[in-house]
Amino acid sequence: xxxxxxxxxxxxxxxxxxxxxxxxxxxxxxxxxxxxxxxxxxxxxxxxxxxxxxxxxxxxxxxxxxxxxxxxxxxxxxxxxxxxxxxxxxxxxxxxxxxxxxxxxxxxxxxxxxxxxxxxxxxxxxxxxxxxxxxxxxxxxxxxxxxxxxxxxxxxxxxxxxxxxxxxxxxxxxxxx
Length: 177
Description:
mainly alpha, three-stranded mixed beta sheet, 5% strand
């Protein structure tokens, strides 16, 4: 089968040297990091469709999703786990998410795969708020959250490998398939 790619525009306009609106991927990576650029492109541009590059949207996705949702979850749970420890308990079921992500990847729906992963991250963040392990000091809840974060890191590794490796180092595991 053949793959068709969409056209990329910049702030709604065709990218061209004569318009002077070309984008240097190298400069974007230096400014925001490779994972942020990869994440933005994969989540923002459905495979094979046209897409508009908007730096403001890139910054919003980075701040709202990578920094706030994922970053805060990782730092919060790792700090609490260091303080109160982990106690093996029943894990949060990530199988439905893993199955949906696998199906989306098979169908080259990379944006939908990322949507599923971030829905699971939202679920983990809600669980933290609901269980309040900073008050209860519940090492079982922290184990459940740490395990969920491990699943997230593995699922995110094809998309944002540097960030996934960083999470793996924080929680002391290796990403393998």
